[in-house]
Design brief:
It is a single chain. This protein is an alpha+beta fold. It has helices spanning 25-48, 57-81, 83-88, 91-116, 129-205, 210-230, 238-256, 280-290, 323-328, 335-349, and strands at residues 235-237, 260-266, 274-276, 299-308, 311-319, 354-361, 364-372. It folds into two domains: 21-168, no CATH class; 206-372, Histidine kinase-like ATPase, C-terminal domain (Heat Shock Protein 90, 2-Layer Sandwich). 59% of the residues lie in helices and 13% in strands. The strands form two sheets. It has a five-stranded mixed β-sheet, with helices on one face. Strands 1-3 form a two-stranded antiparallel ribbon. Helix 1 packs antiparallel against helix 2 (57-81), helix 5 runs antiparallel to helix 6 (210-230) and helix 8 packs antiparallel against helix 10.
Length: 388
């Protein structure tokens, strides 16, 4: 009499990075032996119910424990050296190679077991080794084969699952790479757009205020240096983004020469929150291009950043000509900025964001950006979050 299937589980070729801990021999083989102990106790209790048959508990434990120790070792060796062959085997190979191999292993296991227990069967102590082997094979091979085939198909299933997870992981990595490529493309689109518009402003100032144009050139060089230092970083601290936008506002203040009153207000505990790089500049530029550029005096531009539960709310309000006239007018390329911001927000946060434009008062437009509130655990945690 023999046992049921043992514990083999989970996947992988030797070159795979993640090896299941429970397949370590110090865990896997003792686990098999422990199952043998349970079978031994069951067998011992069952046999004591028969009159005239009294088997010692220690002998039952030795028999079953050794049986499962042998099969546990065999299955672990199959796991170590035959996983690839088991996973790749087709029907022909299973029938012509693994069926004979299962019979061979069952016989080998039985030979070792009979050698270790020469007194079994106890009613025939005079039997030779071959007689005892034949006796045990007749009763045990049909129970040993299921152990082999349960292990075989378990290893195949684990292999398929591992390949599925590897494909999932590869697909996720490709998605991240695609997101990063799209981010880079959008940044490449935004930076020349920003540079082109700023150079136009400087060119306009050159005709009537050379000092202001010179100052703007210095400020532009500072902004370009900041942009180059950031490199491909997609998420930056709100503090860095505010520093960037304040230089940009100083440039616009020089350009509009006192026609616009500017204010920036940020909730103190939000300075370390993460935001997409160059999030605010296109929104502020849009406010100047579509509203404040049409104001002769007393224009208003306010930037306000506040916590809203688990989100960050950014408000940019500007005076000008209102919302409907802005929507009706097409200016040279100014739509690139907001559409670019929306595309990048979608890549960063999926559907967890919003950007709305509304006319809050007569001739006052407010842009509101709502983002998930995130903080970097360390300074290098500055990557695109959506799709990771």
């Amino acid at each position: 009499m023999r046992k049921g299937p043992e514990l083999p589980d989970q996947p992988a070729d030797q070159d795979r990075l993640l090896e299941p801990r429970f397949m370590h021999p110090a865990i896997f083989i003792p686990a098999n032996v422990s199952i043998g102990v349970l079978y031994a106790l069951h067998d011992w209790i069952y046999m004591r119910q028969w009159d005239g048959y009294h088997n010692s508990a220690s002998l039952a434990l030795a028999e079953w424990g050794m049986q499962f120790l042998l099969w546990g070792t065999i299955c672990w060796l199959m796991w170590c050296f035959m996983r690839s062959a088991i996973e790749r085997a087709n029907l022909k190979q299973i029938l012509t190679l693994f069926v004979p191999f299962s019979l061979f292993l069952s016989v080998i296991e039985e030979i070792v077991w009979v050698f270790l227990f020469p007194h079994i069967p106890m009613k025939h102590p005079q039997w030779s080794f071959l007689e005892r082997l034949g006796f045990n094979l007749e009763g045990d091979v049909t129970q040993s084969l299921p152990i082999f085939w349960c292990s075989f198909f378990l290893f195949r299933g684990v292999g398929y699952y591992q390949k599925f997870r590897e494909k999932e992981s590869a697909a996720a990595q490709l998605e991240v790479q695609l997101v990063n490529a799209q981010m880079a493309a959008l940044r490449m689109q935004l930076n020349p757009h920003f540079l082109f518009n700023t150079m136009n402003s400087i060119s306009s100032l050159m005709r009537f205020d050379i000092d202001a144009a010179d100052t703007m050139l210095e400020q532009l060089s500072s902004l370009l240096r900041i942009t180059l230092e950031r490199g491909d970083i997609q998420l930056i601290s709100l503090r860095d983004e505010i520093d960037f936008i304040e230089v940009y506002l100083a440039m616009q203040g020089r350009r509009y020469a006192g026609r616009v009153n500017q204010s920036v207000s940020v909730e103190p505990d939000l300075h370390d929150a993460l935001v997409p790089a160059m999030l605010l500049q296109p929104i502020v530029e849009n406010a100047f291009a579509h509203g404040l550029s049409r104001v002769e005096a007393n224009g208003i531009l306010s930037l306000d950043v506040r916590r809203d539960g688990n989100e960050m709310r950014i408000r940019v309000r500007n005076s000008g000509v209102g919302l409907k006239p802005v929507q009706a007018v097409r200016t040279d390329g100014h739509g690139v900025g907001l559409s670019n911001v929306k595309s990048r927000l979608r890549l960063h946060y999926g559907e967890g964001w919003s950007l709305t434009l509304s006319e809050v008062e007569s001739k006052q437009v407010e842009a509101v950006v709502l983002l998930p509130l995130q903080f970097a655990q360390h300074q290098q945690e500055l990557v695109a979050q959506f799709g990771v």
